[in-house]
Amino acid sequence: MSIRVVVVDDQALVRGGFAMVLGHEADIEVVAEAGTGLEAIDAARLHRPDVILMDIRMPVMDGLEATSRILEAADWDVRVLILTTFDPDEYVYRALRAGASGFVLKDIPPAGLVSAVRTVADGGALLAPSITRRLISQFAERLAVDSALSMRLKRLTEREHEVVTAIARGSSNAEIGEELFIGAATVKSHVSSILTKLALRDRAQIVVFAYESGLVQAGDLDIGH
Q: Is the separation of the CB atoms in 1 and 49 below 8 Å?
């Protein structure tokens, strides 16, 4: 089955460019385009896409509010990939908190865009680039620790705490396996367990949880370069 995508951006030329790039791929189908957050909500409800490429700054309703509303109302598995020209941008962090699975800059190469869509469609999150790590570290400094989230940490084993910390650093499963001397399959199992125990959507939300629960703090980790 092909990956069904909705492209959302208030600039028609940008929107059309992304749609054209993705439409050339045999395993991706662009089912709709939208120019505002409200249009994005309608398109999501009508077409039930697998992935939504969502711009942040748009008229009528911004991408942050649209992301939140879509993910709260969705009764199907949909992922939101944020598009931005800003590096870094606080709105992107807030979008991750709202449930987005990651973000890409609008100047991303075509092959990178295609890879990003496939990654989030497959349940992954775009957290590896150092830009994402800098973003999270910068805005996590402003967050107060949530005591309710801290209590949820008790659901995790000591090894799962280590995995969450590594994910917050932006490490891939392979990197986590090397660091903790465990196999990639074991890491994947731990990640699945963490998502279930904490009722989180994906790795992006694990990172947000790690900071907001106080498990890690900005400055604790070697973030960015």
A: no
